[in-house]
Design a protein that fits this description.
By secondary structure, this protein is of the alpha+beta class. It is 19% helix and 31% strand.
Length: 381
């Protein structure tokens, strides 16, 4: 039997409270995200995809570290971080937001949770927003405290996730709405649960507030899900590309602005608040962008795994962009991808050439997302 010690990891990269449990349940490989190990391999990624879309999977996403903002000026400071209007964010509600720098570049695309009038968590993608927020606070003149709390989320995702949650917490948990949260206690284990997740399937996130209870929590959830086909899993590249969900450092980074990604819906540039990047984003809106993110289908044999580097795109020998995320979808029976291309080549139906590591193949610009564009699955009651 594989044990945690068999991986030979050192102490400079943190392990999640669920690390030993994931190894015990079959984790075969890890990567590093927010200075912490995250399980990326429980076997066949296609089977992981089917487990997700047909039943339910439990994923260790403790790497989604929380930046906690408290204090009398917490709401005002949190609005400084994002161009999304937070004036209507209620206590108990979550929002997907962007954090931008002074040039309008994206530093992170977290989920923001409001636990109290002056109590926020920023549930991070992979970048050091704790340091960014602490630095801004120093010069802001606002009365806030910013820290990383002892909070480690799990994702319970898939069509049977609600049945597992009902088994764990009773019928009242079914009243939890999409992008809302609730503070709960599970046999003495302190949690915040939200109806969110990085899968575009019906799902929940369970934020453990005591890292010493990680192994216990994992086993309770797996036991509760035993009648519903639960499997240990990892975030599915196949499903997230089908949904057009973005991965930080892959599909966007500090040099990417929201307009290039078509994320204008997350910008409220007319609000009174002087958030970081406001002037730059107003200028970009005025001048337009020279590149855009698009969906692609790639015309070749099914890809094995996903791309591990950016693949160049050209049009009749002219460089026009790059493929940022690509994978074969067994459900759609085609290779699908997200790409960043020059605006002149972003129209639906445009034919391009992809330079894969193996050969040059043709690709076509298509609508995204590739599956369930109306988000009927994830928002289902």
């Amino acid at each position: 039997m594989t044990t945690a010690d068999d991986f030979g990891f050192g102490t400079q990269i943190r392990k999640s409270p669920y690390f030993d449990a994931t190894v015990r349940w079959g984790a075969r490989g890890f990567s590093v995200y927010n200075h912490m190990y995250i399980p990326r391999d429980f076997g066949n990624p296609e089977q992981n995809f089917w487990n997700l879309v047909n039943e339910v999977i439990l994923c260790d996403v403790a790497v989604e570290r929380q930046v906690e903002i408290t204090g009398p000026d917490a709401a005002k400071f949190t609005q400084m971080l994002t161009p999304r209007d937070l004036s209507n964010l209620a206590v108990g509600q979550c929002k997907y937001v962007l954090i931008t720098n002074a040039e309008g570049g994206i530093l992170n695309d977290p989920v923001l949770l409001r636990l109290g009038e002056n109590h926020f968590w920023i549930s991070l993608a992979d970048s050091d927003i704790l340091l960014w927020a602490q630095g801004l606070a120093v010069s802001s003149g606002l009365d806030v405290q910013i820290r990383e709390p002892d909070v480690s989320p799990l994702q319970l995702q898939g069509p049977n996730s609600a049945k597992v949650m009902q088994t764990l917490f009773g019928d009242s948990i079914m009243e939890l709405r999409y992008y809302w949260l609730r503070e709960v206690d599970l046999d003495g284990i302190p949690l915040v649960v939200s109806r969110t997740g990085w899968s575009s399937e019906l799902g929940y996130e369970l934020y453990l507030r005591d890292g010493s209870r990680g192994d216990e929590l994992w086993e309770k959830i797996m036991s509760a899900g035993s009648d519903f086909g639960i499997k240990p899993g990892h975030t599915s590249t196949i499903r997230r590309i089908e949904a057009g969900m973005l991965s930080y450092h892959a599909d966007m980074d500090i040099n990417t602005n929201p307009f290039e990604l078509g994320l204008e819906r997350l910008l409220n540039l007319e609000i009174e608040a002087d958030f970081v990047g406001k002037n730059a984003l107003l200028e970009i809106r005025e001048n337009g962008v020279s590149r855009k993110q698009v969906g692609l289908t790639i015309d070749c044999d099914p890809l094995e795994g996903s791309n591990t580097r950016f693949w160049p795109l050209d049009k009749q020998g002219e460089s026009v962009g790059k493929v940022t995320s690509a994978v074969y979808s067994p459900r759609l029976e085609k290779n699908i991808a997200l790409a960043m291309v020059s605006s002149s080549f972003a129209d639906i139906g445009t034919k391009l050439t992809v330079q894969t590591p193996f050969k040059s193949v043709s690709a076509t610009v298509v609508e995204k997302p590739f599956f369930d564009p109306g988000k009927k699955i994830v928002t289902a009651a």
